[in-house]
Design a protein that fits this description.
The complex is a heterodimer of chains A (150) and B (210). By secondary structure, chain A is of the alpha+beta class. Chain A contains two helices and seven strands; from the N terminus they run αβββββββα. The N and C termini of chain A lie far apart (119 Å). In chain B, strand 1 (58-59) and strand 2 form a beta hairpin. The longest helix of chain B is centred in the last third of the chain and has 33 residues, at 171-203. The chains are: A alpha+beta (150), B mainly alpha (210).
Amino acid sequence: MRSSFTVLVLLAGLVPAGARAHEVLHDVERGRAVAVRVYESDGEALADAPFEVFSPSTPGAAYLAGRTDRAGWLAFVPDAPGRWRVKVVEAGGHGLDTTVEVAQAGAAAQGGARAGGGAAFVLRPLLGAAVIAAVFGALVLLARRRSTSG
Amino acid sequence: MHVPDGFVSPQLTLPALAVSAPLWAWAARRHFGRSAADSLPVVGALTAVAFVVQSIMIPLPGGTSTHLLGVTLLAILHGPLVAFVCESLVLVVQALFFGAGGFTVLGVNALAMGLLGPLAGWLVHLALRRASPRGAALVAAWVAVQVSTLAVALVLGLQHRLSPAYFPTPLPVTLAAMMIPSLAVTGPAEGLYTLFALSVLRRAKVREAL
């Protein structure tokens, strides 16, 4: 009788430990994640687009895969400093393949090209047209110089 | 429409560059030499306009967008090789200054958007222009967009078969995602743009458009 009671007490003592083993806990650490927003050249967010993130320590396999949120954001928590590769691929061929430089503390600075929104929507076509006009201006001058010298 | 860097492997980008490079050299020698001094200002202006129309995104249902090509007009007025060189220049400026597209995929994009589409459009215009000049321009621009889009979709589908790590979406999904907007929105818009631009050039008495 006494031995049965002892076993019962011991089992009762183990129950909380067993329950704790199945409990999911969490920590909140602010400033550790790297957030990247992807959008079209006119500022339209690339929402619900599939993405993959590759760690510099294991570049051959995706560290994280998922979909951007409705505002075009994706986020990951880097476990190593270096150049993290972010690849966003829409079925229609839209997307980007860029790198994000992650410092030791987890702070990130984006590498690669940055598409512009806002004022860039107006400035981009103007700048591109100006560059093309300059190229053709040079070609016209060259062609005229050649025709006069020849 | 164009493919960004990192979506296509060297198995496809290198052959595309190998095909494009001699074509660029041949087209530049043939169409941008000494004798082209008179036509270059119009070609340059149309190339700049093509850059601008490619920068304007047309929103589509589902959160994505499309844009016009603008180079079918150049193919109709000056031939497909001129369109090829001009579209390549547009792609270089986009890659160099704005990080759009990229240099590794320059050959793929130039062949799809600058050569195959405009060449198809030019052929259609050549075949139909006697029956109806306006109808020919409209259909030519529509066909050019479909051929360019189909070429890009096939390259992405082939890339998926070669290595899904570069492009994870299979061809049927890519085809549907690219061709439906192209058939319904981009093609008609390109046709209307080409018609409008041709009428403006005719009113301005630009020699090639008369």
